[in-house]
Specification:
Elements lengths: L2 H15 L28 H4 L23
Length: 72
């Protein structure tokens, strides 16, 4: 798998995850998870992606770089 297609897969996974609100950090649909400090989390909270059948068995789903993880 090339780096471009891997990045596309991460973005596609993130788009699927973000269709739902996160029960842990209360972000609305369309937003990445947030840490306690309010910064974009590096990975999505499990509850945020558990409702996506394609991703439900994963232990972690990374937040894509274009969502600026670690930034407020």
């Amino acid at each position: 798998m090339s780096a471009v297609s891997a990045a596309d897969n991460v973005t596609r996974d993130a788009d699927e995850v973000e269709r739902h609100p996160c029960p842990r950090c209360d972000v609305p649909p369309g937003s990445p998870c947030r840490s306690r400090s309010g910064a974009v989390a590096g990975t999505y909270h499990t509850g945020h992606f558990a409702g996506v059948p394609l991703l439900a068995k994963r232990l972690r789903v990374r937040t894509p770089a274009d969502r600026r993880p670690g930034q407020p």
